[in-house]
Amino acid sequence: MTTGTVDTTQELAAFLRSRRERLDPGDFGLLSHRRSRRTPGLRREEVAELAGVSIDYVVRLEQARGLRPSAEVVEALARALRLAPDERAYLFGLAGRRPGAPDKPADTAAEPLARLVDDLSPRPAMLLNHRYDILAWNPEMAKLLLDFGTLPPARRNAMWLCLLHPEIRERYADRERVLREGVAHLRAAWAAHPDDPALTELIAEFAAGDEDFARLWAERDVQVNGRGRKVLRHPGVGVLAVEFEVLVPLQDADQRLLIYRAADEESQSTLDRLFAG
């Protein structure tokens, strides 16, 4: 066991070797290979072929010979070695590269997170992805904003509701600030997920359908806002203020847990009346 500063070149080499050696050739249809296998896992030439790089490149990486692979090569190696998400992030870190977005953005709620949303009652809570698609919500959030189950799945999007839904767009007392923060978040998500066609189409729809969005998008503000305060005008109970917190689960990094709580005693009383009704 060693301590002190990590030699990332050596650790990258050791990590690649360990991940290669743990793979089962049978999973790749390689058991009938003519040459006998004297070492576990895949051969270097097999990893090179799967990743689309030269054998010499894999050899030099595993021998810690000072290479600094590009983000594209790191991604190709991660796929060839069938790395889990946390292993993929570790490999990108060792290579000194920023990991790209996961292969498939979340379109459905992870079951444990959906249960957590329910367990958070009576605090209003919902689960979103990076596009602001609403994946799960509890009854309190439905009472506070809208029963999202009454909407077509394509319209269960928090930004679309704020922009274009006739009731929700008037729900925010400070709509300009809320919208500005939302657009800045969406631009950050767009940069982090350049290959997500659904997000690109959503942004194009917003820009064409709402002048406020088009104006704010053109300002190119970028911000990821994880907590804050909103003042809501509820048609049934009146004005109330809520604080919000956004949490990102380690296991499902494309999903975001949004939790509201009353910002003051008067707002708590208002929420109590709403949820009791």
UniProtKB/TrEMBL annotation:
It comes from Amycolatopsis samaneae. This is Helix-turn-helix transcriptional regulator. It comes from the Bacteria. SMART domains: HTH_XRE. Residues 41-88 form the HTH cro/C1-type domain. Pfam families: HTH_31, MLTR_LBD. CDD domains: HTH_XRE. Gene3D superfamilies: 3.30.450.180, lambda repressor-like DNA-binding domains.
